[in-house]
């Protein structure tokens, strides 16, 4: 299970970095007006509007991958094995001097210190 979570986390990080890079490469809607009136170059590798379609579709795919991996990580983060409980819910065990963990008994609750009984409570 840990390997699967690590793979999903790596895919999520790569999708996030890819989205950041693609969003920074894209130009805004106002940049098209400047190219229409002659300032800036409209010729590019993908054509006049081909880069916008390619980059926006790739960003959408990476956003979907990021969303799916986020849901998968949330699912695996909330799923607990039925056999093991929380560390806070299990009592501590006292190991006897012989060192055998099989002879361990749960620790008795500690009585409050004598000074704690003198503090008034509301």
UniProtKB/TrEMBL annotation:
Compartments reported by the entry: Cell membrane
GO CC annotation, single: plasma membrane
One Pfam short name: SecG
Any one GO biological process: protein transport by the Sec complex
Keywords annotated in UniProt: Cell membrane, Membrane, Protein transport, Translocation, Transmembrane, Transmembrane helix, Transport
Gene Ontology MF annotations: protein-transporting ATPase activity
Segments crossing the lipid bilayer: 54-76
Entry membrane topology: Multi-pass membrane protein
Main localization (coarse): membrane
Family of the protein in this entry: Belongs to the SecG family.
Protein's job: Involved in protein export. Participates in an early event of protein translocation.
Protein name (database record): Protein-export membrane protein SecG
Record organism: Acidovorax temperans
């Amino acid at each position: 299970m840990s390997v699967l979570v690590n793979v999903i986390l790596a895919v999520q990080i790569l999708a996030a970095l890819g989205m950041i890079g693609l969003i920074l490469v894209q130009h805004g809607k106002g940049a098209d007006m400047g190219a229409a009136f002659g300032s800036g170059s409209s010729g590019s590798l993908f054509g006049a509007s081909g880069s916008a379609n390619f980059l926006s579709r790739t960003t959408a795919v990476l956003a979907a991958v990021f969303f799916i991996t986020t849901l998968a990580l949330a699912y695996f983060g909330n799923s607990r094995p039925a056999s093991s409980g929380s560390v806070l819910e299990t009592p501590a065990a006292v190991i006897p001097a012989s060192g055998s963990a099989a002879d361990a008994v749960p620790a008795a609750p500690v009585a409050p210190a004598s000074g704690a009984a003198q503090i008034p409570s509301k």
